[in-house]
Amino acid sequence: MQGFYSKLDSSPSSSPLLGGRRDGPQIPLSLAVEAEKAQALLQTFSSASLLASGGLGAFCVAADHALQMPVIQNHLWLRAALDNATHGLVGLWSWAVVIGLRKRSDLYEVLLAGLLASIIDLDHFYMAGSLSVKAAVSLPQRPPLHCSSLIPVFCLTLRFLMWLGRLKDAWCSLPWMLFISMATHHVRDAVRHGLWLCPFGNTAPLPYWLYVSTTATLPHLCSVLMYLTGTRDVISAKHGVAIDV
């Protein structure tokens, strides 16, 4: 469109709206925006993000081996607390891979993602009707928040409520954060119990290598889906820079 240019060529000296000269060829806004979107998508698989997700996979292996130590296995409270903390750290790490850590508000988001990944296990106590850890880990069936079919339901419902309440763009990533927190928790539990896809039942337990590789790639999947739905553009505008996860 004549008279509209990308931020790639928006300096005062080159902007015709500010009376500057145009010494070189100008880039149409639509073409520049598409180029920036393509660059953001490519950066989803940057070396830094791949290194971070590889570290996430290595952390999963190290944490699971540590939890098998006799000193931990012989103490129910300690085992439950460390297992839940691992869920939180995996969720925290995964969301950090998605958004990066550029300012203090990013740290708050990452901590919130870790908290969401951890509090899922509170449904064990709800189902047991007791604060007893022994009762919570000895349930005859899996508690409600461990139904993987509910993940898209919760995320879409949250997105609808945000639209209904006209919440600002600053909250646009919240459904995706919920997705990462719940999905990483469920995939980790699936090594022992499989995925509970109600009303269809449970899958077979996931092979350990599949759990680790899925956990490491979930942040990239989430990032691509955010790009396809336009959420990444909104977050980039919020940060003032292109997200280069």
SSE topology:
Elements lengths: L28 H15 L3 H21 L2 H4 L2 H24 L4 H16 L2 H7 L4 H4 L13 H15 L9 H20 L14 H21 L2 H9 L6
Helix pairs in contact: 2-4, 2-10, 4-5, 4-9, 4-10, 5-9, 8-9, 9-10
Protein name: Transmembrane protein 267
Main location: membrane
Subcellular location: Membrane
Compact summary:
64% of the residues lie in helices and 0% in strands. The chain has 245 residues and is mainly alpha-helical.
Task: List the keywords.
245 residues, mainly alpha, 11 helices, disordered C terminus, Transmembrane protein 267
Structure description:
This protein has helices at 29-43, 47-67, 70-73, 76-99, 104-119, 122-128, 133-136, 150-164, 174-193, 208-228, 231-239. α2 packs antiparallel against α10. The chain starts with 28 loop residues before the first helix and ends in a 6-residue tail after the last helix. The protein is built from eleven helices and no strands. The protein has one domain (47-239). It is globular. With 245 residues, the chain is an all-alpha fold. It is found in: Membrane. It is a multi-pass membrane protein. Keywords: Membrane, Transmembrane, Transmembrane helix.
What's the rounded overall pLDDT mean?
Answer: 81
What is the H/E string?
HHHHHHHHHHH
Q: Main sheet, how many strands, which sense, barrel?
A: none
First-residue to last-residue Cα separation: 31 Å
- Percent of residues in beta strands? under 5%
Uncertain spans: 1-22, 239-245
Give the helix proportion (percent range). 55-70%
What oligomeric state do the depicted chains represent?
Answer: single chain
Counting H and I runs of at least 4 residues, what is the number of helices?
Answer: 11
Radius of gyration: 22 Å
What general form does the structure show?
A: globular
Count of the separate structural domains: 1
Structural class: mainly alpha
Number of strands: 0
